[in-house]
Every structure is written in structure tokens, then in C-alpha cells.
Design brief:
alpha/beta, 11 helices, elongated, disordered C terminus, binds uridine-5'-diphosphate, binds magnesium ion
């Protein structure tokens, strides 16, 4: 009469998902954009950490997001030296979130980890995430307890952004998380089944549900190189997060409409009362001009917000591929074919 209790479901799922059957295959996705200064060290630390985990096979999928330094060459070298390395080179810079999507579309693992190339997310946390996965957790996301080497401005804006997002979206995106996380294959498939262009990865993963747990870690300073996120990109990213997950900005128009109409009504009553019951006229250009400018401002603002949503509808309508690949290295025929929900945008020849 009742559905089986969740523990049983969990157990069944676990049996079905390879977590307890033989060595698991872990895929690590590393988006790289101009990371020549750090990529070799990242690789060494990743391999050193993963090799200590018993009963684990792994592959590392480096996604070169159109770097214009030596990153791609270095990656080719790493692939040449180590058959567990795969390299996916995008045809230009498509941005971090697309690079991550491209990587996820090419992984073969039962379980996948997303990690930045700059060692800000310490690879040493991965075994802890894997341990959670073995207990049945589907998403183990890193939560930053300390952020070294980031400006107070960045920390403050990031914290304000996550709190705002939490207030105005229907789904709960955990505070202070980045994209450093482990995901079960089920979650990766769910993520890839979402065809949208504005890919706010951490929000989309939160949206999928399943069992998600946080793993606290200290965010280190960038090991070398500099951040690829200027303020402009950060603002764009924040707008993506809000617009993809919330209609609150559109509703703002309604609320502003109420407030402004209320004020106008009060003004009318005030003016009438003065006119009818006293000898005073309401006078003055200033108040008139302020009212006109205020209304003009509010209307332009709301038009802009509307434009954000319309622009995104336009982008979705064009149905362009999300990214283009110019080179794939190290993918064997064993690797999974690209996900059917995405158009295959490249020639499938493996090198
Ligand atoms: N990245 C990318 N494409 C971009 C920008 C960044 O693939 O257009 C990668 C970058 O190489 C790094 C990760 O995304 O591995 C995070 O970028 P970054 O460290 O610059 O961001 P921050 O840590 O400052 O937020
Ligand atoms: Mg970084």
C-alpha cells in the first residue's frame, strides 16, 4: 500500500549504480583557460591523490577552453605520457560553464568530479567526496570555509549573491559553493538532459535533487596565473543565475507598479484636499519633474529586465550547438558517445 521506505530504495539504487560492484571508474573534469603556469602541477597533484584511493580506476578529462597560451600543448604532452588523460579542445573560449558541460558530455565514469585547474579546489578533498558517494550520497559539493587570496570585494559580493539567490529562487542553492563537486552518473545524466544555453551549473545540479551533501574545505589562493573572471563576467554570471532560476525580477514590475500608483493616488488626494478645503494650490515644477523622471526611470529599468528574459528566449530559439570541439585526444571507443540530448557538433574521429 505504501511505497517502500527510502533506505530500501537507496540500497536498490546503490546496487544498480555500481558503487559497490568492483572498482569504480571516476572521471575528473578540469576546465582550463590559459593555465600554462599551473596545469602540470595540477596534474601531478591530481594523479598523486587519486592513486592513493584503493579500488578506483580514473580518467582525467581536461577541457581546453580556447586558451591562447601553451596550455593545449602542455595538455597534449600530459596525454602522451599518461593514457588516463583525455583532452578535449574547444574551438574558442566558450566560458567556464560551457567547458564544464563539454567535459561532462564526454566522461565515461560511474562518478564524476568537477575541479578547477588552478588548485584553488584542493584535489586532496576528492577521497572524502568519494567516501560520501560510497555511503549513497549522489552529490558531494565543496563548501568553502575559508577563501585565501581573494579580495574582500569578491568575497562580499559572492556572499551577497548567494544569499539573494536563496531568497528569490524556488530551489535552494547551497551558500558558498562553487562548481567543485562530485556527482553520481544519475545526476550527470540528469544534468545533460537539460538542453538550456544559460548554464548555471551549480544551480542546475541543485535543481536535480537526489541526495546532496556538503563537504567543507578551505579554498586556497590561486596557485599561479590570474583569475579569468573580471567583474563584467562575474556580473553576467550572476545575472544568469538569477534569470535562469527566478521570475522575481519580472514580478518587480508589478510591485513597483503598485507602489508608484499608490504614491500617485496619495498625491491626487492631497492636491484635491488642499484645493477644496484650503486656499492653497499645489504648485511647483520640481515635484512634477521628479515624478516624470522617476516614472521614466522605473519604466526603463523594467524594460531592461524584460529584455534580459526576451534575449534569453531569442538565444534558446536559435538552437546553436553549445560549443564546438576542434580536437579530442585519448578518448577510446570505450568512452561514452556524446549525450543524445546534445547535437553532435564535431567529427567523431578519435586521435
Ligand atoms: N575557465 C575556463 N574558461 C573561462 C574562464 C575560466 O575554462 O572562460 C576555467 C579556469 O581555467 C579555471 C576555472 O575555470 O580552471 C575557474 O576559473 P578562475 O580560477 O579564473 O575563476 P575563480 O577561481 O577566480 O572564480
Ligand atoms: Mg580560480
Amino acid at each position: 500500500m505504501y511505497p517502500p521506505p527510502p533506505q530500501n530504495l537507496r540500497k536498490l539504487n546503490r546496487l544498480a549504480s555500481n558503487r559497490d560492484r568492483g572498482p569504480a571508474l571516476l572521471s575528473v573534469v578540469v576546465p582550463c583557460f590559459n593555465e600554462e603556469a599551473v596545469i602540470r602541477e595540477t596534474h601531478l597533484r591530481l594523479v598523486a591523490t587519486l592513486e592513493t584511493v584503493p579500488d578506483l580506476d580514473f580518467e582525467i578529462v581536461y577541457v581546453d577552453d580556447g586558451s591562447h597560451d601553451a596550455t593545449l600543448n602542455l595538455l597534449r604532452g600530459l596525454q602522451h605520457a599518461d593514457a588516463r588523460v583525455r583532452v578535449l579542445a574547444l574551438s574558442r573560449n566558450f566560458g567556464h560553464q560551457m567547458a564544464v558541460t563539454a567535459g561532462l558530455q564526454h566522461v565515461a565514469g560511474h562518478v564524476v568530479v568537477l575541479i578547477d585547474a588552478d588548485l584553488q579546489d584542493p584535489p586532496e578533498v576528492i577521497p572524502e567526496m568519494l567516501a560520501r558517494w560510497h555511503t549513497g550520497v549522489d552529490v558531494a559539493y565543496g563548501v568553502r570555509t575559508k577563501r585565501d587570496g581573494e579580495t574582500r570585494f569578491k568575497r562580499w559580493t559572492a556572499s551577497a549573491f548567494y544569499r539573494l539567490l536563496d531568497c528569490i529562487t524556488d530551489i535552494s542553492i547551497p551558500l558558498d559553493t562553487g562548481d567543485f563537486r562530485l556527482m553520481d552518473r544519475t545526476v550527470v545524466d540528469a544534468f545533460l538532459a537539460m538542453p538550456e544555453r544559460d548554464r548555471f551549473v551549480r544551480g542546475m545540479v541543485a535543481w536535480t535533487g537526489f541526495r546532496q551533501e556538503s563537504v567543507p574545505y578551505q579554498r586556497a589562493a590561486r596557485s599561479a596565473g590570474e583569475t579569468k573572471w573580471p567583474l563584467r563576467k562575474m556580473l553576467r554570471f550572476a545575472t544568469d543565475g538569477i534569470v535562469s532560476f527566478s521570475l522575481a525580477p519580472l514580478r518587480l514590475a508589478t510591485w513597483l507598479g503598485f507602489v508608484v500608483s499608490g504614491l500617485a493616488l496619495a498625491g491626487i488626494v492631497y492636491a484635491l484636499v488642499l484645493r477644496l478645503f484650503t486656499a492653497v494650490w499645489v504648485s511647483g515644477w520640481t515635484s512634477l519633474l521628479i515624478a516624470v523622471l522617476f516614472l521614466g526611470g522605473v519604466q526603463l529599468l523594467m524594460l531592461g529586465i524584460l529584455g534580459e528574459y526576451v534575449g534569453r528566449i531569442y538565444g534558446e530559439m536559435k538552437r546553436r550547438p553549445l560549443y564546438l570541439v576542434k580536437e579530442r585526444l585519448g578518448f577510446t571507443s570505450m568512452s561514452r558517445p556524446p549525450h543524445p540530448h546534445f547535437r553532435d557538433d564535431t567529427n567523431p574521429s578519435d586521435s
